[in-house]
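So, is this right?
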Amino acid sequence: QVLLVESGGGLVQAGGSLRLSCAASGYFFSRYGMGWFRQAPGKEREFVARVSWTGGSTSYVDSVKGRFTISRDNAKNTVYLQMNSLKPEDTAVYYCAAAARRGVVSDPREYDYWGQGTQVTVSS
């Protein structure tokens, strides 16, 4: 059974930082690309960041470049999202996802597995 479990969300003031984690089990984690998405109330799910299965390639949505960093530890079957300089517009439920196919980046339809999400709230 594939399981992705996010943690690390919470309430933080603007300018603060949070580190999200996503622990994976039930599949060959190191053979999957991993992504983070977010969904704010009333909005569509939005791509945030992605890391290749080796960790050697990353991609970000423009709005988080320079503030967020995605990384993975294949020994721990975990992917991380370090979020710095948070803004109120970063408020959303954050989801991690796994993609088996090489080259998948930002299309949520190309991801195979999803976590349940963790709430991030940034106050002004």
Notes: The two ends are 40 Å apart (CA to CA). The mean pLDDT is 96.
